[in-house]
Amino acid sequence: MLWLLDALLAGWLLSLMSGPLGSFIVWRRMAYFGDTLAHSALLGVTLGFLMDVQLNIAIILCAIFIAVLLANLQRQQLIPSDTLLGLMAHTTLAAGLVTLSMVDNVRIDLNSYLFGDLLAVSRQDLYSLAIGSALVLAAIIKMWRGLLAASVSEELAEVEGYNVARLRLMFMVLLAIVIAGAMKLVGVLLITALLIIPAAAARPFSRHPQQMAFIATILSMISVALGLGLSYQWDTPAGPSVVLASAIIFLISQSAFQLSKRNA
């Protein structure tokens, strides 16, 4: 049962990062942006194999490159942002899949990258997640006011003296770190769901941003525990089970909120 405890701890460490970051994604309406960075992670894996670079580092660098490229393309306003994000998301995913198929000297379990394998987490993964969680949380705490101000209005944030461009870049870096940590656990196709669903579920019951980030983190942890329980009980894939549990919690929270509004 030690492997199950390791998986639970890994999921909870991921929740510590995904709760606050997912809240900012919901506030800033960046779900499609998160999807694009998540899909680019597979291309980062390919480059890591080809260049013999540590995979997490390759994923982070690739995600940051795609994020900067997207920011520059959006600034030029050649095509609508949603069209650009959809184009980049599917292009990077397809490029990663095609390139992975050409890597002959390495055996690759493609499903583990697409859908994750939370039950196969190692102690090294736990240590990496612990360090990543500490760094991400420290950065979020330090940049909280600036990120919150930029989420409300980037123009007003600049007037208040915040460097919005630097804040945006740092947020992209943090998101890239979370994606690198989450890829092995829930896979590139489900990372964004784990980021936004708990935050969306927490939003109706939150009176201020800090409370929403806290509730989102707790709901994410509950989702991990329930998902692992479902996976253990019915022998289902762990990553998708966690996301499904999160979606169920979201539906329950929405129903409870609507019921409370009717009774008010």
UniProtKB/TrEMBL annotation:
**Cellular localization per UniProt:** Cell inner membrane; Cell membrane
Per the record, what is one GO cellular component? ATP-binding cassette (ABC) transporter complex
Q: Give me the segments passing through the membrane.
A: 47-71, 83-103, 126-144, 188-205, 212-232, 238-257
Pfam family of this protein, just one? ABC-3
Topology class, membrane: Multi-pass membrane protein
Q: Name one GO biological process term.
A: transmembrane transport
- Could you tell me which InterPro entries the record lists for this protein? ABC_BtuC-like, ABC_TroCD
Keywords, A to Z, come to:
Cell inner membrane, Cell membrane, Ion transport, Membrane, Transmembrane, Transmembrane helix, Transport, Zinc, Zinc transport
Family of the protein in this entry = Belongs to the ABC-3 integral membrane protein family.
Briefly, what is this protein's role? Involved in the high-affinity zinc uptake transport system.
Protein name (database record):
High-affinity zinc uptake system membrane protein ZnuB
Q: What is the lineage of its organism?
A: Bacteria, Pseudomonadati, Pseudomonadota, Gammaproteobacteria, Oceanospirillales
